[in-house]
Amino acid sequence: MQLVFATNNDNKLQEVQSLIPQHIKLLSLKDIGCFEEVPETQATIEGNAIQKADYIKTHYGYDCFADDTGLEVESLNGDPGVYSARYAGAQRDAHDNMNLLLKNLEGQPNRDAQFKTVIALHLNGRLKTFDGICKGEITNSKQGTQGFGYDPIFKALGYDKTFAEMSLEQKNKIGHRGKATRLLVDFLNAI
């Protein structure tokens, strides 16, 4: 089986690739000659994942899956949510995003948050989605150098390290993207 993972994010590609079984050949957007920006203009995380998968299926004809992930902070009414990647602006800079989030949480006692990933799969003419959620909290400062995005300021519930202080294997075991990807893999293995 061969599937396209509709992402331009090499970090996401590496995370997911480590969870996909050997018998599934994973292609990147570069592998299929897709170099344009895949649209993600929907109002929800699920909507963006579906939109990206639809785009690749429609324009390139490949069976594929796409994910969208958002960090939802309880005291900020779920923000940055669907705007997580561009929270601090169109430049999509992770450090700017983290700095703005930390600033917006200054003096806020409730730092509860969750990462949410939705994977949308287009396979054999059917569309299916898989969700993964990891609950935790936002730290007061950046800690660690692994991972990407908001990883240096997110601690999963029951852990004393941020995602950026964990190995990829540890993060995949408890993280949102790992949970959604395992559901995807279970579905593919059952076909």
Detailed description of the structure:
The protein is α/β, with parallel strands linked by helices. The protein has one domain: Maf protein (Alpha-Beta Complex), CATH 3.90.950. Helix content is 29%, strand content 25%. It is built from five helices and seven strands. Strands 1, 2, 3, 4, 5, 6 and 7 form a seven-stranded mixed β-sheet that branches. A hairpin with a 6-residue loop joins strand 3 (64-73) and strand 4 (80-81). Helix 4 packs across helix 5 (176-189). The longest helix is centred in the first third of the chain and has 16 residues, at 45-60. The radius of gyration is 16 Å and the shape is globular. The N and C termini lie close together (11 Å).
Features:
191 residues; alpha/beta; Maf protein; seven-stranded mixed β-sheet; 7 strands; globular
Number of helices: 5
**Main β sheet profile:** 7 strands, mixed
CATH class term: Alpha Beta
Question: How many structural domains in the coordinates?
Answer: 1
* Approximate helicity band: 25-40%
The total count of strands amounts to 7
CATH topology: Maf protein
CATH architecture: Alpha-Beta Complex
Mean pLDDT: 95
Brief write-up:
It is built from five helices and seven strands; from the N terminus they run E-H-E-H-E-E-H-E-E-E-H-H. With 191 residues, it is of the alpha/beta class.
Record the SSE blueprint.
Blueprint: E1 2-5, H1 10-17, E2 25-27, H2 45-60, E3 64-73, E4 80-81, H3 94-104, E5 112-123, E6 126-138, E7 154-156, H4 168-174, H5 176-189
Parallel strand pairs: 1-2, 1-3
Antiparallel strand pairs: 3-4, 3-5, 5-6, 6-7
